[in-house]
Specification:
It is a single chain. By secondary structure, the protein is of the alpha+beta class. The protein has a single domain, classed as K Homology domain, type 1 (Ribosomal Protein S8, Chain: A, domain 1), CATH 3.30.1370.10. It is built from five helices and five strands. The strands form two sheets. A three-stranded antiparallel sheet has the order 3-5-4. It has a two-stranded antiparallel ribbon with strand order 1-2. It starts with a strand and ends with a helix. It comes from Acrobeloides nanus. It is found in: Nucleus.
């Protein structure tokens, strides 16, 4: 799969996406929301390390540390379509907390916070 940007009626190739990852389809409305400056992609990126590419055609490519994390991020993105923009930060925090076993780096960060507070 390759990523192409259409500008001034000329196609500019952004390159071939790396092997691996997961491609899924979202509504065009959600694709636009994912491309916004303060989207759920940004919020998720504060808690989890992953790569993403979002197309205006509704195709999304996600690649995280492993398949479990990749699918967890996909599920959060898909669920976010039903969430108001103002509620996204709380929604992401709840989802990430409920998936601590999926995102081990969060467990280490939480342990450091507890150790520092003692």
């Amino acid at each position: 799969m390759s990523c192409v940007e259409k500008e001034d009626l000329r196609a500019h190739c952004m390159g071939v996406l790396p092997a691996g990852g997961f491609v899924f389809k979202v509504s065009l409305d959600l694709a636009r929301r994912l491309l916004a400056q303060n989207s759920i992609i940004t919020l998720l990126g504060n808690s989890a390390k992953f790569e993403s590419t979002i197309g205006m055609n509704g195709r999304v490519w996600i690649s995280a540390f492993d398949t479990v994390q990749t699918l967890a991020i996909r599920d959060i993105i898909l669920e976010s379509e039903k969430i108001y923009e103002s509620e996204l930060p709380m929604f992401v925090n709840q989802k990430i907390r409920s998936m601590r076993g999926v995102f081990p780096s969060l467990n280490a960060a939480n342990k450091m916070e507890v150790d520092n507070s003692q």
